[in-house]
Amino acid sequence: MTDVIFNNTRFDPDLTPFHEHAKQMAKAFGYTAALDFDKNLAQLVRLRVAQVNQCSYCLILHSKTAREVGIEPAKIDNLASYWESELYSEQEKVALSYCDRLTQGTDPHFHEIHEQAKCFFSEKEIAELAAIVINMNLWTRLKLAQGATPSYAE
């Protein structure tokens, strides 16, 4: 398979200190972070944010990482309609719904999904879930703004 590279078509993200701050968040809550939250579910959540925000960079990176950590291919392929699937547990569906609602950011009933999350996750795990989603939203927006465009390496 040919390697995919990314070109910044709009601006260099290193022109401001923001990129370094984002990298620190990624160390704390990105796909290499050591968290209490389930590693595979965290990866599905990251991929879901990439889908919702339509970020090419994040879709490619997190699809690849999901395969590498051993998530079933059918779960990766069906993630865009997880709510209509029996491939996901109720716990996974609640985490993904929490992700969708926090990413949307305008749901007046967000407290309802938070209450559902409390049935499956500890307070620390919910805090980590929120941080994972927020971190991914930061990265998808940064990559979209800088124009991280995929192409094949020559």
UniProtKB/TrEMBL annotation:
**Keyword Cell cycle recorded:** no
Keywords of the record: Oxidoreductase, Peroxidase
Tree of life domain: Bacteria
Keyword hit for Oxidoreductase = yes
Q: Where is the Carboxymuconolactone decarboxylase-like domain?
A: 36-96
In its UniProt record, a GO molecular function of this protein is:
peroxiredoxin activity
Q: Pfam families in the record, alphabetically?
A: CMD
Name-wise, this protein is Alkylhydroperoxidase like protein, AhpD family
